[in-house]
Amino acid sequence: MIPRSYTVVPSPIGDLVLTGDGTALSGLYLQRPPRGIDPSWRSDARPFRAATEQLAAYFVGELREFDLPVAPVGTAFQLEVWHRLRTIPYGETRTYGAIAAAIGRPGASRAVGLANGRNPVSIVVPCHRVIGSDGTLTGYAGGLPRKRWLLAMERGEQGWQQPLPDAVELPLPDVAEQPRGA
Fold first, then answer.
1. Is there a domain that residue 119 lies in?
2. What's the CATH code of the domain at 112?
């Protein structure tokens, strides 16, 4: 198994947890990674220099498209959806149905929603740009205030320059959290 690294990067929407194998970004989480930080991972910011620089430029409105190698882990369907998400232009949105149609599965909008919700590389794979069929903002793993902020920032709407009031630093353990009773 390839050793994994992680780092925590501050942002206007709260701390971001980046994970990777030294060559590609495998996770960008707005909260803790779903399974926590594995004890075998090492805290090391060096493999994430390009990602950190690009995120900083993105958050001040200077970067519109990320140029980072990503290696999300998922099913073939999820990978197809996540690849399609990267084609949504900066500042624009698409519906779950439009994504489903674009991948040749027009009846799979709910499955697209599930895949979107499991996207492990938030922001770089812009799942925040997907909205409901009626144009409303729908679920986002980082919370709807973050989704609203990201879209407002990309559209250049007034007020986006202010950090979210609930943007907090994440206290991350050095090792994965153990299940209760373990």
1. yes
2. 1.10.10.10
Q: Which residue type, as a one-letter code, is found at position 58?
A: Y
Q: What value does the mean pLDDT of the chain take? A: 86
**How do strand 5-9 and strand 94-95 relate by DSSP bridges?**
unpaired
* pLDDT tens by residue, 32-90: 666 777 788 899 999 999 999 999 999 998 999 999 999 999 999 999 999 999 999 99
Residue pair 47/5 in contact by the 8 Å Cβ criterion:
yes
Q: Is 100 a catalytic residue?
A: no
Instruction: From the candidates 127, 130, 141, 151, give the one annotated as an active-site residue.
Output: 127
Q: Which of 3-12, 63-72, 92-101 has the lowest mean pLDDT?
A: 3-12
Amino acid code (one letter) for 102: A
End-to-end CA distance of the chain: 25
* Nearest of 129, 120, 122, 118 to residue 155 by alpha carbon: 129
> pLDDT higher for 86 or 138?
86
* Residue 36 included in any domain: yes
pLDDT (mean) for 159-172: 55
| Neighbour tally for 156: CB within 10 Å | 9
